[in-house]
């Protein structure tokens, strides 16, 4: 194994600048603890001088012990024209009581004179004074050289002098920032290599993804000698996001043999990604390398046959290394081999030549012709298999449901009401609820009725809902396909419904989702009991 690379996660600071993300204090604590379990070196968790919520978070963290993470507070150099001791934001970084502080300062002469409107000499003093101040308080200090690559291309001499000012202040690490994400990999490599050769200090890299090259740029910086890599765990951040650490870590460790985290922790990569996406309330993109649902998913019959015979020819690593798994997507083009594997998970005695297999293949083709699509909703196809093979236990019977939509006057979150009646073992339960739209109202109503009989449904909720019109030429008479993703906090599953009525399509997918949860819980209970 080659030398170690320090991983610096900025999900809670840079990532929090992404559209749609807002962390509570509890959210931040959960993310830090997850990254700590994974073995991340640094977590930049906020700017205590910018808002009271960040300061509250840092106060909470003072009572918690971390195994791996060095908690980092973020702030800027002192303001122009005042002493570092007078700067309120600088002093707030001390109140955070973190072992590490990250200080950003200007390294592009244009930003010095045109944005913060001070002299080039004063900017150098601001950098040196601020870093010296924190070193006197026994802090490890990372200097984020903001807009460094643009600054270097515009005025390499001044950009380099800003780094020298940081070193004179006693800096521990120089992080070279591609702040607007516009630099190309060859430029990153040559400039980083020059800085590494010129200065005897740790050099880091901080890349944004505006040209889609943040991961590649970070890897090129490491190749040039950087040993400190900054990013956000799922790549989210302002504009197009930051370098994605869930991609960078396995790329560096598996492909390039650098040590980023413990090998044992690599197998927790996908689990951590799912957890952080849940806490962040941002859907984990299926197409993400390594940790996405589609990272090792195969659909075409010839590909699937090839993977079955020689997986390394279609998969660049073993999925288990990062905690992921191989998936054969259900489709009319995926071939009988895929379908038989799904069938054998439920009934191992069946083969490709079994009558039941032929019947299920025909059923799959018929349903896809009607508009069903199972590659993103294999749970529904599993339920079809169970029902066809009589391996399905119906937990309830849906007798009646009705939805009323209206325009609310007072509570805008209650735009629909649902009434539902179900039967469980001959006992009927009827209930009604309000919801933010018809599907939300139906979901709440059916679970409220069923929770009387099955309390474990309280831990289940919908995490995603998608609707697609299948035949736009039919206008309002078109069929719709509804995909519902559900979770109980531990597992995620997706079901599908198709109908000319969006409510009916939603109900089909919703009932499948609940039935799946109840069947799985029963199987797990039976397994544990014997």
Shape: elongated
- Mean pLDDT rating: 89
Can you tell me the CATH architecture of the largest domain? Alpha-Beta Barrel
Q: How many helices does DSSP assign?
A: 18
CATH overall fold name of the largest domain: TIM Barrel
Strand content: 15-25%
Task: Compute the number of structural domains.
Answer: 2
Summing up helix and strand content along with how strands pair, one would put the structural category as alpha/beta
Mind describing the biggest β-sheet? 8 strands, parallel, barrel
| Radius of gyration of CA atoms, rounded to a whole number | 28 Å
Helix content: 40-55%
CATH class of the largest domain: Alpha Beta
Order of strands, main sheet, comes to 1-2-3-4-5-6-7-8
Annotation, overall tally of beta strands: 16
Molecular structure report:
This protein has about 525 residues and is an alpha/beta fold. The chain folds into 2 domains: about 5-260, TIM Barrel, CATH 3.20.20; about 395-530, Alpha-isopropylmalate synthase LeuA, regulatory domain (Double Stranded RNA Binding Domain). The protein contains 18 helices and 16 strands. A hairpin with a 2-residue loop joins strand 12 and strand 13 (about 425-435). It is elongated and about 80 Å long.
